[in-house]
Amino acid sequence: MYEVAIIGAGPAGASAALFTAKAGKKTLLLDSDQSMTKRAWIENHYGVAEIAGPELVETGKKQAAKFGAELKQGKAVKLESTGGGVRIETEDGGSYEAQHVIVATGVFADLAQASGIDVKAGAEPRIKTVVDVDAEGRTSLDRVWAAGTAAGVSVHTIVTAGDGAKVAINVISELNGERYVDHDVLKS
Fold it and tell me: pTM (2 decimals)?
């Protein structure tokens, strides 16, 4: 069983996986390769002069993998609470289990809806439905969180990446039983 499974490897999902894996949590990053960022040209992402969306997505996946996140291809179609965690069913009939799941499916709310998770109208242009979350990123399904555009934040990559990190920190804090902070220092 994974400690954390993240569904979607766009900016929100890869950012969440980077934090959970770096914190030493057994992390699954499950991706269906449908990120809208793969069609983007980005010149408004802090710390990056300009970058093609596909390059940003691949960099995020590599960063998460560097710290031990397991990257798997597949489309999650349903989440089910198991009492001690969450079962993730995939389109190909497979499944995974995790103590906590972060839904970072971008513009797609179909997984949340198929799983009975509360959704609401989206506020961004062309985003019709988003997952209804509290301030920490929790959804209506126990141990399931949502981050990024899927959770109703702005579609801008810098915003979704930050939201993925925020939700991951909240999940790590819950797993640890105390507030988690990740600060690296310059190496001399």
Answer: 0.95
